[in-house]
Specification:
74% helix; 4 helices; 102 residues
Length: 102
């Protein structure tokens, strides 16, 4: 008789981690929007140094957003490698592994 299928602990943990990473990625994308918008509009600082600083701010903002997206992508990739359902034996082994008790 086949073992019953149960939720995969790895899949569940990765799904929660993905939601958290997506939320943080959204925060990162929004982090510099106000400052960058104000700099571009010339509302807070003007001149050649301000233009250079704003360009640096924009580049760092885009780089941070790309890195945050890479984290989300990596979690999604790992999530796809773990099926949502596994046997009870596999789930127990996963729980032991997650607890550091191989």
């Amino acid at each position: 008789m086949a073992e019953p299928m149960v939720p995969n602990p790895w899949h569940e943990r990765l799904r929660h981690l993905l939601v958290e990473a997506e939320n943080r990625s959204h925060e990162v994308r929004q982090a510099y929007q106000r400052a960058f918008g104000a700099m571009r509009a010339g509302q807070v600082w003007t001149g050649p140094t301000a233009v250079a600083w704003a360009a640096e701010l924009e580049e760092r903002h885009h780089r941070l957003a790309r890195l945050a997206q890479r984290v989300v992508d990596a979690i999604e990739e790992e999530l796809h490698r773990h099926p949502p359902l596994v046997t009870e034996t596999e789930a127990n082994a996963a729980r032991r592994e997650m607890a550091g008790r191989m």
